[in-house]
Amino acid sequence: MTPHVPQRPVPPGLPAALAPLHRRVSALVERLPSTPPSTLAALVLDRALLPRLPSDAHAALQGRVVALQVTDFGLRVHLRLQGQRFHAAGDSARPDVRVRATALGFLKLARGDEDPDRLFFERELVIDGDTELGLVLKNALDAIGPLWRPAERRAH
């Protein structure tokens, strides 16, 4: 008897033959501690997001735990803003708000390729928990615009 592996979205472009392997690996990743990826995410957000974060959003996030879940890879991070830095909040910290999307959904959001409202209303971006804090996050992302744009290819 094979163990039950949860059905999760398969990244676009992944050959169908690799889907079962992807599901098993992502189920394994989901069981790993969130602290290592949370620490890395905190460092990235300290540089990419924090300097551009509106003061009202900064105040609303102080001491609150935000969970980000990359649904197609089983990856999750738990972050807390303390003072002028994000920190890994750890798995035991209960999230005040949870933001879920596929890796492609988060990439679209970070690059500004898609409007956060469209992603939200089409359920590509799911926010649950503290509704007011979720709205503050969504509005902050709207105000900030793209967090990252890949470098343009230069002609030689």
Number of helical stretches of at least 4 residues: 6
Radius of gyration: 17 Å
Number of strands: 5
Instruction: Please write the string of helix (H) and strand (E) elements.
Output: HHHEEEEHHEH
Helix content: 40-55%
Structural class of the secondary elements? alpha+beta
| Low-confidence blocks of residues | 1-6
What is the strand and helix layout of this fold?
Elements: H1 19-31, H2 35-48, H3 55-61, E1 65-70, E2 75-82, E3 85-88, E4 97-101, H4 103-111, H5 116-121, E5 125-129, H6 131-144
Helix pairs in contact: 3-6
How does this model look, in words?
- This protein has six helices and five strands, in the order αααββββααβα.
- The protein is of the alpha+beta class and 156 residues long.
- The N terminus is likely disordered.
- α3 packs antiparallel against α6.
- Strands 3-2-1-4-5 form a five-stranded mixed beta sheet.
- The chain starts with 18 loop residues before the first helix and ends in a 12-residue tail after the last helix.
State the main characteristics:
disordered N terminus, five-stranded mixed beta sheet, alpha+beta, globular, 156 residues
In short:
The protein has 156 residues and is an alpha+beta fold.
